[in-house]
Write the structure tokens for this entry.
Amino acid sequence: MDFDASQLWEKVKTLEQEVSVLKQQQIDINQAKELYLKIFEEFPALIWRSRLDKLCDYFNKTWLEFTGRTMEQEFGNGWTEGVHPDDFDLCLKTYVESFDKREAFLMEYRMKNKSGEYRWIRDFGRPFYDLDNSFLGYIGSCYDITEIKDNEMKLIELNATKDKFFSLIAHDLRGPFNALLGFTKLLEYELPTMTQDRIQKVAVTMRKSATNLYNLLENLLAWSQMERGVNTIIPESFSVMTRIIESMATIQELAIKKGIHVKYEINNDLMVFADSNMFATIIRNLTSNAIKFTPKGGNITIGAKPMADHWVEISITDTGIGMDQDLQENLFKLEVNTSRKGTEKEESTGLGLIICKGYIEKLGGRMWLESKEGQGSTFHFSLPGKHQNA
């Protein structure tokens, strides 16, 4: 066979051209990949990438700005140092199992940001492939969902509040109403044959039921207004002693009936700067609670004294049944049922204390308590003694 050098040369040139095209295509592919990553750099999501060994080899600028760490620190398994310890095991398990199955995943975990604060992250991870459909690893995009999580918690609290509200209406209103209905029915059928003494006792019981019902409705209305933020606060300076005496006028009878002595330890010149009506509601609720949970013949002391920086501390101390630690911890949680009957089987919903705490905080003060089971309780709260400059 004759050797044709020219033909061979043509074939070599053709192969070189093909190789050149392939090289150019590879360059174009690499450039496209680099461009792909550059686009990710400014992407608002936190982007990560892992290779076949499950270790991460890329984090975009948004991720690094969020964590306040360098690429070298996050590289490999470094990023896991920022995951909340309580979320770490589930996070790793989800990632590894999905990776092995080549399945996309969606998970949520807390990750530390550059300020050292844990934020909730929603992480979408998915496998990615080369042009020849060969598996290269995973790529993920993360979003800060802390506000969504907070709103979810608020929604849970609102639902619990709603459930408690309807529970109060269904249970606590039913008792006084049933009593009233029962006694009106008794009067309807037996009044002509009832003695004066019997009528008097029925009237007293009916009045007691009506008073309980009225107080509960007042608390429900006050709580509803507080939850909706529609309370109108009109702060003014007034005498602590004078307003407490006025507030006690409607509940003094309860103390007298139980033989409970109420003592005042208040300087007549002591003033506070607060909403007078809210203050009265606080005093009535705290004092009626003290009366309710103090046995006959007990003592209640209402005190007030100046604090530092023009603040005033008011306290209501009783010699009642007190509270254990568990009850104290749940006392101001509407979703937890802390209601219990008083020493004379008086009804209690716990709503009054929640209203007190809410009002005190709206007035700029705080509330705290001291109590031991069987040894009485003291509820303290603070209010500004004069207008506090912002």
